[in-house]
Structure formats: structure tokens, C-alpha cells
Specification:
The structure is a single chain. By secondary structure, the chain is of the alpha+beta class. Helices cover 59% and strands 8% of the residues. It has eight helices and six strands; from the N terminus they run ααααααααββββββ. It has a six-stranded antiparallel sheet. Helix 2 crosses helix 5 and helix 6 crosses helix 7. It is elongated. The chain starts with a helix and ends with a strand.
């Protein structure tokens, strides 16, 4: 190889190397690693905020729907168990009557009298109050057939109620199963919302917190109940409103003691709560059990006006799918949503449906 040829080859190799380096250094399309959260840099903070709130609201609605279906099915199971016990007692009583009717018939056929005490022991709810007069015994014998027929009818009615209750339970279990299937969807929505939050840049996170604080301040000015325009010095107090006392004070104290514990859908403590799990557990701890779900609390408890709300009362929000406990001074304690903990918030921070008062 001559010198000129070798020089050309070296220059060619150098050119190729330079070209490869240039390609390597050229900016190309970037791809996020699998599982990397979307920073959503193309969305405004307001859009992100609204998207998160929407996802969490959908999850909460589904949570309350499952809780309601579960409560109804559980109550029906208890009712069916009670009916089965009543049916067993009715069948036992009917067997006793059938035996007694046979004894009475044989005694009358032989021309004798059935002992009064024997009749009362079989018929009476209180054997110690046995009949002691022969005339009453004779009257009881004449009525045995009628009593037996009455018991047969009662037993048949119990049988009908038990069958109907069993059918209803099957329906409720089916409903509960459908809601349970929604659990995966609920968790998916929660995971989606959490992924959005995890993907936010530090500046976005700061602006989001700033926006939420701004909304909280605006909510304080919207409060029109007791204590509006005033300040409070602690739970259960506030300008223009009475302090909590009795069971209400115990409920407020219990709820306040849960501050900092995480929201978990369907949870009723002691380490985590959802919104209605917190309020129902707090009032149960105060000695006044109330319905489990926010919708049942709204439907089943005594309603009062917003102007007369007192600490311990429950403020119902949205379409009765969220609830918080009023603590005075225009504030509530509540379990807000997944990813957050039990906390204090302005009572007017969400659309209010109404107010209910447990323990009355």
C-alpha cells in the first residue's frame, strides 16, 4: 500500500467515525421509561386540579355505593337468621299443639278430663302460671283445635316471610357482588390519580398546593352558618355557635383524635377511615350508633337547618356521597379522599346538601 492510498483510507475512516458521533449526538424523540409518571407539562394547574378532583369524586361515589350494598346485604342476612329462628320456634310449638290435640281427643273419647296443668305447660309462655281450675281446662280443650289452626296459619306466614327474605338476600348479594367487581375500577381510578400526582414536577406540586390553599380561604368566606365572620379557638367552639356537650362532645373528641390517619376506602378504623366510616365510628364511640354510609346517614338521621348546626352534627355534601363532622367555627373534621389523611377543613369547601343531627 502506497502512502497516498493509506492516507485516503485513514481520512475515510475518520469521516465515518465523525458521522457516527454526529448521529449519536443528534437530539431524537424521547420515550419515558415504563411506569414513569406523565408530568402533564401541557396542562394548567387548574386542569390538573380538576382532573384529580374528578377522579377522586368518582372513586368516592363508587365507594359509598359498595358500602351501601354491603350494609343492606349484611342486614338482610341478620333478618333471615332471625326468621329461621322464629320459624323453628313456630314449628316446635305446632308440634306441641299437635301432640296436645291428640291427647285431648283421646281423653275426651274415653270420657275423661285433660289435666289443666298439662295444657298450660304446653300452651303457655310462662309454665309457672299453670291453670288451676278445671273449668278453664275444659275451655282450653274446646279451643285446642282453633289454637292449632291459628298456629298453622302463623307458621305458614313465617314460612312465606322466610322464603321472601331468602329471595331478597339473593338479590342483595348479587348487588354486593356487582359493587365488589367495581372495586378494581375504584382502585384503578385511585392509582391513576396517584400516578398523576406522583408525576407532577416540584413547581407543579407547589402551585397545586397553593391553589388548594386558596380554595380553602375562599371557602371560609362562603360559610353562612353559625360563626360566620368570626374566629374559633378550638374544636367545638366558635363565634355564634354553642360548644359541644354530652355525646356530641364525645363524638367530636373521637373524630379529632383520628387526625393524621389515612383515608382508605371502606375503612372504619382504627388505623384508617373513609368519610362515613369516620363519622359512624365516632358516634358509635359516643354511645349513639348511626347508619354506616353517608346516604343512610342523610336519609335516616334528624335533619336540621344549616343556621342551627352544632358541633357533632354531620354536614352532607354533593349527592350525599361525602360527609364531615362539624366542630364549630365554620369547620369540619373529615376523611377527604385517598392519598390524604383525616383533617380539618372549611365547612363550605364542598357543595352542601344539608345537615343531620345524630342522637336525637
Amino acid at each position: 500500500m502506497n502512502v497516498s492510498t493509506g492516507g485516503r483510507q485513514l481520512r475515510s475512516r475518520a469521516a465515518i467515525a465523525a458521522f457516527v458521533c454526529a448521529i449519536t449526538l443528534l437530539p431524537g424523540p424521547s420515550f419515558a421509561a415504563p411506569g414513569t409518571p406523565d408530568p402533564r407539562s401541557d396542562q394548567s394547574i387548574e386542569d390538573i386540579h380538576n382532573e384529580l378532583n374528578g377522579l377522586y369524586r368518582e372513586a368516592e361515589v363508587a365507594t359509598e355505593a359498595y358500602n351501601t350494598a354491603d350494609v343492606k346485604a349484611t342486614e338482610q342476612e341478620k333478618r333471615l337468621t332471625s326468621l329461621h329462628k322464629d320459624l323453628a320456634r313456630a314449628e316446635s310449638r305446632l308440634d306441641d299443639l299437635h301432640t296436645l290435640v291428640g291427647v285431648a281427643a283421646r281423653t275426651q273419647y274415653r270420657g275423661g278430663n285433660l289435666d289443666a296443668t298439662g295444657i298450660q305447660l304446653l300452651l303457655g309462655d310462662h309454665p309457672d302460671q299453670a291453670l288451676d281450675e278445671a273449668s278453664q281446662a275444659r275451655q282450653a280443650m274446646r279451643n285446642l283445635v282453633n289454637v292449632s289452626e291459628t298456629q298453622k296459619r302463623a307458621r305458614a306466614e313465617l314460612d312465606r316471610q322466610t322464603d321472601a327474605a331468602a329471595d331478597k338476600l339473593r338479590e342483595l348479594k348479587s348487588s354486593r357482588a356487582r359493587q365488589a367487581e367495581a372495586k378494581g375500577k375504584i382502585e384503578k381510578k385511585i392509582a391513576e390519580a396517584e400516578q398523576i400526582e406522583a408525576g407532577l414536577k416540584k413547581e407543579q406540586t407547589r402551585k397545586l398546593a397553593q391553589l388548594e390553599n386558596q380554595e380553602a380561604q375562599e371557602a371560609k368566606s362562603k360559610w353562612t352558618g353559625p360563626g360566620s365572620g368570626g374566629t374559633s379557638t378550638g374544636p367545638g367552639s366558635g363565634s355564634g355557635g354553642p360548644k359541644a356537650s354530652g355525646a356530641a362532645a364525645r363524638a367530636v373528641d373521637f373524630a379529632m383524635a383520628q387526625i393524621g390517619k389515612p383515608y382508605v376506602w371502606g375503612a372504619v378504623g382504627p388505623s384508617s377511615y373513609d368519610c362515613s366510616g369516620l363519622t359512624s365510628t365516632a358516634w358509635a364511640a359516643a354511645g349513639h350508633p348511626i347508619p354506616r354510609t353517608s346516604q343512610a346517614q342523610w336519609q335516616g338521621l334528624t335533619r336540621v337547618s344549616l343556621a342551627s348546626v352544632q358541633p357533632g352534627d354531620l354536614i352532607i355534601y354533593y349527592d350525599a356521597t361525602h360527609v364531615g363532622m362539624y366542630i364549630g367555627g365554620g369547620r369540619i373534621v373529615h376523611a377527604p379522599r385517598p392519598g390524604r389523611t383525616v383533617t380539618i377543613a372549611p365547612a363550605a369547601s364542598m357543595p352542601i346538601v344539608g345537615v343531620v343531627r345524630p342522637g336525637v
